[in-house]
Amino acid sequence: MISLSCLKHLAAGVLAAAVIVASGCSSSAAEESGDLIDDSGSDGSTTGDGEGSSTSGESGGGSTTGAASSGTSGGDTGDTGSDSAGEEDDLLPGLEPGACAVDTPSALSLDLPDSNGTVSPVQSRMAILDGWGVFGALHIRPWEFLNYYPFEYPAAPVGELAVHAELYAQGGLQGSAFEVQVAVTGPHLEASERPPVDLTLVVDNSGSMKGVPLTVLKAACTALAKGLQVGDTVSLVTWESDAPVILASHAVTGPLDPKLVAAIESLEATGGSDLYGGLSAGYELASAAKKPDRVGRVVLMSDGGAAVDAKTLELIAGHASDPQAEGIDLIGVGVGTYGGYQPALMDSVAALGRGPTVFVGSVEEANKTLVEGFLGLTMVAAREVEVELVLPPGFRRVASPELRYDGDLVPPGGQPLPQNGALVLYERLDTCAPELVSDQSPVSIVVRYRDVESHEVVELVVDKTVGELLAGGSAQLQKGAAIVRYAEALRLWNDAGAELDVYAAVAQEALDRIDVAQKKLPNDASLAEIRAVLEALLKAMV
User: What's the whole-number mean pLDDT along residues 146-161?
Assistant: First the structure.
């Protein structure tokens, strides 16, 4: 459904394109050969000024997002649904195979079923590199891979959001296959400038936590302690039925506060299993500390070996941020080994808690996710971010069967934009009417979000042409394409329904896209990692 604002835009002569606005991509060279021209074109980022506009508006549409790092200055970038959740085939929203409208603009609203999760990229990597080879109950969710791996998009000016887009046309404009990637970024915030944080750690100390899970949990708590500074408070609460509170609203002296570190080291897996009691005590402490100029967060840590009931879910939802006020969001931190972690608990609380869900399986991962990512984990630059894409007539989304999600996940109303991060969307498109596409074809991206201070809905409309997007560069898009195909290859392997030769072909396609991306970003650590994981899996198959 096209929003009123989009219809007004179209009436003004804008046939628009769906998905993104920012740095563009080369329209020449066949993708299969990897012979892409140098596309170090100008930055395509746009904020509320210039070609875009920013207005108050009603929330609508949807968004497909991924979290990524954003830079501190402008310049060249360098270099997936509620509507169908109940349908039988459970495809991402908006996928209508065979649908083709040549008389009206193509509009896509993009949704995700969970909120900034990054569990499956970490667990699948562990499973392969540790020799498991299969993922069991793990759900491979391609959008989580875009959340997990960082992209280099410029930050927005203070008080604004920026929209960045890249477009790639296989075989040029006369072809029918296109790829597009959009990223939404907020202003950069230094740690020294952030508001004070009241952090409440609610930790699982049940019997299943003995051994590696407890060791990793302590490492995760210690990693969060490194991100605290003078002015912050911290509470530590267990799942014990009696006296669950170990530390109550303690004012830290700085990173690795001695009293907090000692409390963390004292944790034992004594058999406490009262999840509701622990969360109730944690939320009580967090609520008592809550003030308008402070950020309150509850961090739930567990190996997932607990069931969550309706009473607990109601407790979580009742404290999370709502449209009119900043609440106490819940951050889910899964801990333990690949084989021992059970995702059902964190899956249940992710959307309701309105915070990110991560997995930590090692000290190294704790430092990467919880220390380096502290600001993005605990703070948001905007809420309820939604992206509506309007494309020229004939465009439609193309998705492989691997791009599916689980129908029991609850879609949130838009996505939070993590502080110092980005929401990244990648889509494959085709057109049944390539003759209607030219360099002058207009493309519009409508981004709606709720301001974290005023709580008002803001609408940002960005207008570009196909030619402008194609001329802007595609390095980050090529990285996104490689990551998505890597995730699809893992998903296909995990489903175990494909013949080895079929899987090998899909894996080779992913490696080919990694090759293309590495030509543009030769020193990119994320691309090197996914190549190593995929090659290890292929080697194990021989």
Answer: 95
């080291």: which residue's tokens? 265
Q: Give the chain's domains with CATH numbers.
A: 4-189+382-541 (no CATH), 191-378 (3.40.50.410)
pTM of structure: 0.82
User: How many C-alpha atoms does 517 have within 13 Å on its Cβ side?
Assistant: 26
CA-CA distances (angstroms) from residue 75 to 48, 53, 72, 471? 17, 20, 10, 15
pLDDT digits 0-9 by tens, 50-77: 344 444 333 333 333 344 444 433 333 4
Which residues have CB under 8 Å from 385's CB, separation 6+? 63, 65, 161, 184, 414, 415, 416, 417, 423, 447, 448, 449
pLDDT tens digits for 167-194? 999 878 877 899 999 999 999 999 999 9
Residues 6+ positions from 199 with CB-CB distance below 8 Å: 224, 228, 232, 233, 234, 235, 297, 299, 378
Gyration radius (Cα) of the chain, Å = 23
Dist. CA 338–CA 335, nearest whole Å: 9
| 139 phi, psi to nearest 5 deg | -95, 120
Residue with tokens 């930050």: 155
Distance between CA atoms of residues 193 and 516, nearest Å:
39
Q: Provide the 10 A C-beta neighbour count for residue 173.
A: 18
Residue 430: alpha-carbon gap to chain centroid: 24
Q: Where are the beta strands (DSSP E) in 170-229?
A: 177-185, 197-203
Share of the chain above pLDDT 90, in %: 53
- Residue 191: burial class (beta carbons within 10 Å; 0-12, 13-18, 19+): exposed
Report how far apart the first and last C-alpha atoms of the chain are (Å, whole number).
48
Q: What would the pLDDT profile of 192-204 be if each residue is shown by its tens digit?
A: 999 999 999 999 9
